[in-house]
Design brief:
Elements: H1 21-40, E1 44-45, E2 51-53, E3 73-75, E4 81-84, H2 89-98, E5 107-116, E6 128-137, H3 143-158, E7 166-172, H4 173-182, H5 191-202, H6 204-216, E8 219-221, E9 227-229, H7 235-245, H8 252-263, H9 267-286, E10 292-294, E11 308-319, E12 325-336, H10 342-345, E13 351-357, H11 358-368, E14 380-382, H12 389-404, E15 409-411, H13 419-428, E16 433-436, H14 439-443, E17 446-451, H15 452-461, H16 465-470, E18 475-479, H17 483-506
Parallel strand pairs: 1-5, 7-10, 14-15, 14-16
Antiparallel strand pairs: 2-4, 3-4, 5-6, 6-13, 7-11, 8-9, 11-12, 12-13, 16-17, 17-18
Helix pairs in contact: 1-3, 3-9, 4-7, 4-9, 5-6, 6-7, 8-9
Length: 507
């Protein structure tokens, strides 16, 4: 006897998730809102492919001799390395460079789509996630950067996040570069140590000044005993960096004054401070004071940023997996990256952009109760009493008439001979109505409409025949020609009942 074929095991790859209908619909609603704001600002959509040549993704990614480290890669049949995109910015830079003579500068565009990281997955850390980006290419002035920050604020508010629950925090990498130059970390030879300094500053909110001081020096040991190697700066250099991170004040103009004192004598640092001063003027003029804040602790980890950098941070508390109250934190960020397009063109091409982490923002909106939780109405189910071609034709016409009227509808596709299973199916689908027509109804040109919502209510609440007779009927018979109108009427009544119930619960 032949061995039974081994069944394949159904396994979801680590770091990836399946998405359910309610999540997909909520995401689409959120994306439509973001798109509406970006369009209002004059940005137009483009789409780039999921796959790029690995070398086009930029030096901030792993070395070319390890193309599968950090990104998902494969070799083409011509031995060219291809990778799934790591973010949406590098593909945009390639697109602009490749179409440079055809596009209109400044090039204002937005994109949303999946990006992929070949990294170790963990709680809340996925290998596939969605970003929504907006970029302006070909605008050298910081007014383009200020616009990104203002658009980020408008987007969060349009999604229902109130002022006080968010802050757009802004810094300038030129200021930080000036500080790093002043402590002797300029040049390519110090790229690794500079990155360690950036990572240390980025932990300011998490570890505080004392923790960052350790990370800037010899290193830090956490509560579990794990040791993180530090940047190895001496005491004077650490003090200079901490002076920079402590320059922030509630008032933007005061922060700028403090930063001038920190980078005094360094041309690059002063250039960055003056750019922040220009941005502050635009924020004040646009009415964004209190929504956008100059904050020296914002560094952004990617190496390709060359000027202003910004983060959208949500400031309400949530409970983490350890049961601790923590600030929700960043849901997006970006900055100026004047070098990315230049890698392809060999000439300066200024650019700035902002990216929203869609999944993280969705989580935030759920925490705030701002993610439209209303369920999409399930379809009306047209039951099948007879499976011959003529009868099926009648059922199909009912289905199509309802669809043509804008009503979700489906004809039952299972084993029609067990009618009870059809009603069970409709019940599991949360169908609002079932349409029934047997031989007698068809002979009379009639159809039955079963109100499944009202039927459930009646079965649970009514205890006497008198109450049953006084209630709204859970099943009606109408002429075929009146089917669509009657279905609309009942669905409207159900919607009104839901609103009244929601009103009672709210009270």
């Amino acid at each position: 006897m032949a061995n039974k074929a081994e069944k394949m095991k159904a396994r979801l790859p680590r770091g990836f998730v399946d998405r359910e209908p309610h999540d997909l619909r909520a995401a689409e609603k959120m994306l439509a809102t973001i798109r509406e704001v970006y369009e209002r600002y004059g940005f137009d959509p483009i789409e780039t492919p999921l796959v790029e040549y690995t070398d086009a993704l930029g030096k901030f990614l792993p070395d070319l001799d390890r193309p599968n480290e950090g990104v998902f890669s494969l070799q083409d049949d011509d031995e060219q390395w291809l990778s799934l995109r790591y973010d949406l910015t590098a593909p945009l830079a390639r697109h602009v460079a490749e179409n440079f003579n055809e596009i209109q500068l400044p090039f204002r565009t937005y994109r949303n789509g999946w990006v992929f990281r070949n990294e170790k997955p963990g709680p809340g850390r996925f290998r596939q996630f969605m970003q929504f980006d907006a970029d302006t290419v070909g605008a050298p002035g910081v007014s383009a950067d200020a616009e990104m920050c203002m658009m980020a604020a408008d987007t969060l508010e349009r999604l229902g996040i109130q002022r006080g629950d968010y802050m757009i925090r802004v810094n300038n990498r030129k200021v930080l570069d000036g500080v790093l130059e002043a402590i002797g970390l300029a040049g390519d030879d110090n790229a690794g140590r500079r990155l360690n300094v950036l990572r240390a500053i980025d932990k300011l909110d998490k570890f505080g000044a004392e923790g960052v001081k350790l990370l800037l020096g010899e290193g830090r040991r956490d509560e579990s005993g794990d040791f993180t190697k530090g940047a190895g700066l001496d005491a004077a250099a650490i003090a200079k960096v901490l002076d920079f991170t402590a320059a922030g004040a509630e008032d933007g103009q005061q922060t700028i004054t403090n930063l001038r004192a920190v980078v005094e004598g360094n041309a690059r640092g002063m250039e960055g401070v003056e750019e922040l001063a220009q941005m502050q003027t635009l924020f004040d003029a646009g009415g964004y004071a209190g929504r956008v804040k100059i904050d020296p602790s914002v560094v952004r980890g990617l190496e390709y940023y060359t000027g202003p950098v910004y983060e959208a941070e949500l400031q309400f508390d949530v409970t983490n997996e350890k049961g601790e109250k923590v600030v929700f934190g960043s849901v997006g960020g970006g900055g100026r990256y004047d070098g990315l397009v230049s890698r392809f063109r060999g000439q300066p091409v200024p650019a700035t952009g902002f990216s929203i982490g869609v999944s993280r923002l969705m989580t935030a909106l759920k925490n705030l109760g701002k993610l439209g939780t209303e369920e999409t109405l399930a379809p009306v189910v047209i039951t099948v009493m007879d499976g011959d071609a003529e009868s099926l034709g009648h059922y199909q016409k009912f289905t199509q008439d309802l669809r043509d009227a804008g009503i979700r509808a489906e004809m039952y596709q299972g084993n029609w001979k067990k009618f009870g299973n059809q009603l069970k199916y409709a019940d599991r689908r949360n169908a609002p109505l079932a349409i029934i027509q047997g031989g007698d109804e068809r002979a009379n040109g009639e159809v039955q409409i079963k109100d499944l919502i009202e039927g459930k209510r009646l079965s649970g609440e009514i205890e006497s025949n008198e109450e049953w007779r006084a209630s709204r009927p859970a099943q009606v018979t109408v002429k075929e020609a009146d089917l669509v109108a009657e279905v609309k009427r009942i669905l409207s009544q159900q919607a009104e009942d839901r609103l009244q119930e929601q009103s009672r619960q709210a009270q």
